[in-house]
Amino acid sequence: MLARLFPMPSHSLMLLIVWLMLNTTLSLGHILLGSVLAIVIPLICAPLRVPQPKIKRPFKAMLYVLVVLTDIVVANVQVALLVVGPQRKIKPGFVAIPLDLTDVLPITVLASTVTMTPGTVSGELSSDKKWLYVHVLDMPDNEQDVIDLVKNRYEARVKEIFGC
């Protein structure tokens, strides 16, 4: 009974807290209206929830964050040197990366990682979710190098984290 009334209790609590903070008063009317909204909104949204894969290896996830942060710092320096350096021979291009991932959340994590790393942007995910199109600021002569980097450095780790 209680689980049906509060399908997402943490969301209900957060909605109530945010509602009261936005109204800046603790009057009975605001508390009651906030409570009603905190119950009704999750009830309406509960059927829209999509089950997400769980992180199977949290330690690997922490290591992944460190790898990505390191790559972001290194890529920032590389892009800065490329843009303001004496030789501005930038060769932009797109590369299609075949994906082994199938779930939406791991694909989103991979695409976000690519986008957060300076010099690359995730452009599009194919409708069948088998290809990620990535724009590269300075495309190497062999586009397979970019594919191998994304697949071996990022996708393989994301697969481990989510147990795909």
TrEMBL record:
This is Na+/H+ antiporter subunit E. It holds the Pfam family MNHE. It is a multi-pass membrane protein. InterPro entries: Cation_antiport_E. It is found in: Cell membrane. The chain crosses the membrane at residues 12-41, 61-84. One of its GO terms (molecular function) is monoatomic cation transmembrane transporter activity. Belongs to the CPA3 antiporters (TC 2.A.63) subunit E family. NCBIfam families: PRK08965.1-2 (NF006518). The keyword Nucleotide-binding does not apply. It comes from Brumicola blandensis.
